[in-house]
Design a protein that fits this description.
With 143 residues, this protein is of the alpha+beta class. Among the domains are: 14-45; 80-142, no CATH class. Helices cover 32% and strands 13% of the residues. The protein has helices spanning 17-41, 85-105; strands at residues 80-82, 120-126, 134-142. β2 and β3 form a beta hairpin.
């Protein structure tokens, strides 16, 4: 037994120019969007690896704080030289008073300042020919 089957084309396209242009535009857009849907679905493509498949929030931030320092450690020596040991000591004391006045002016409390180790040493002439030979006493160095 033989059946006659009517054959119909699957896609009917009118070949006039406006329909053909519209059809080409539609096909082009459809083909252009296919790769985008593949990228959106594939989590390992285009840098999306590790992102969850459900809605999420991503937050990135940066912060900085500027604050004036509340502590400083400053070490220095005050020295004076004079032939008279007492005058050398007075010179150092006068310089130290100026430093303490500057610190008070900067509103630094006395309890936050430490001064120590006042030393007085004799200073002798040096003989360039013999470094071990002690020359004449020329004064005192107070630090």
């Amino acid at each position: 037994m033989q059946h006659d089957v009517e054959r119909r084309p699957l896609l009917l396209v009118d070949t006039n120019s406006s329909n053909l242009t519209l059809m080409k535009t539609f096909i082009f857009c459809a083909l252009a969007l296919v790769p985008l849907t593949v990228v959106a679905q594939g989590s390992d493509v285009a840098g999306l690896a590790g992102l969850p498949n459900h809605p999420f929030l991503y937050v990135e931030g940066k912060a900085s704080v500027e604050k004036a320092p509340n502590i400083i450690s400053l070490h220095f020596d005050i020295s004076g030289r004079n032939a008279d040991q007492g005058k050398a000591n007075q010179e150092v004391q006068a310089k130290a008073k100026k430093v303490f006045a500057l610190l008070k002016e900067a509103k630094i409390e006395d309890r936050d300042v430490s001064a120590q180790d006042l030393q007085s040493e004799p200073e002798f002439e040096r003989d360039d020919a013999d470094q071990n030979k002690r020359g004449k006493l020329i004064g005192y160095v107070v630090t």
